[in-house]
């Protein structure tokens, strides 16, 4: 019963994070217009989220090991709500409060991300089957809900400040309540928190592991595809395909819906075919989707491309997290390292697309996503399981 409650609470943590993030992303075009930003300046403002995340991620492994994933998620939910509220209220005042709020949001999101993924590996281990991608589907479902609510708020001309401060309150209260039901991160048969922090499971030791570093690069490619889609699909659809703001936000919702579908049905594919063949195939689908979105001659092609892009990007991040948690004794340190590398995509993504957008248009700049997914195809073998757990034996035998 306790594991069942923790499973539901983990879904809630993922969904709450996704809802908060997509709520912000759905209002980016309005914040851009309110502040009078061009593509390059918008990219620099969005960089604040990545900067906060990258500061939090290397610290989160030791923090989660010391205080546990439950307390970490609760604390970060409060901080994220505060950051989102500051950014929302600041959007009517100027760039500085928006950047400050987004930095806090990014910092909270980074530590929250590691903590909930660690709890996901714990629940996965208790259940004895792979469900990590479904937790990430919970995140994607939260993003779909956030995007659809955001589209409605845009259509109804609800002010950014009112919309996002309401989201901040709901997410903070809901996630803090749910995270109290997490199960402990360590079984009694595993090393105590202090012992693990001082041993080979620490984040510093994980930074010296070639497999962990390569998984981080693999996750970076998929995180770039996901993050750029989150940040720029609405803008590219509006400016590049000349659709209305509401339909631009709807394109974002299509992307998130496709990611949710891929993550929900992913476990069956992973169990049957193995991690590496599945993520390679999805990366190729993502490449086709990006090409359709960028070069499609009409909005219909762009929406089809958005759908394929979302499907293609859906499993890379959760599969990387599962690969980092193959050894439960070292999960916190490895997940922290993999997430730290992966989140470099969120640091590089906004300014890269913004800079290229000033020279090539934002729409054409998105072809960089296809280039990184091509790299992911080449290094997908790094996520092969360390052990032949149930549901992964087929892959181990084929390798």
Please tally the β strands and state the result.
0
How far the N terminus sits from the C terminus, by CA atoms, comes to 37 Å
Alpha plus pi helix count: 19
The helix content is: over 70%
- What would the principal axes of the Cα set say about the shape? globular
Largest sheet, described in full? none
Backbone CA Rg: 20 Å
Give the helices and strands as they follow along the chain. Answer: HHHHHHHHHHHHHHHHHHH
Uncertain segments: 191-201, 388-399
**Helices and strands: which structural class?**
mainly alpha
In terms of DSSP E residues, the strand content is: under 5%
Average predicted confidence as pLDDT: 85
Explain how this protein is built.
This protein is mainly alpha-helical and 399 residues long. It contains 19 helices and no strands. Helix 5 (95-127) packs antiparallel against helix 15 (331-342). It is globular and about 55 Å long. The model is unreliable at 191-201 and 388-399 (pLDDT under 50).
Describe the secondary structure blueprint for this structure.
Elements: H1 2-26, H2 28-35, H3 39-67, H4 69-90, H5 95-127, H6 132-155, H7 160-179, H8 193-198, H9 203-206, H10 210-240, H11 245-273, H12 275-295, H13 299-313, H14 316-324, H15 331-342, H16 344-360, H17 362-365, H18 367-379, H19 393-398
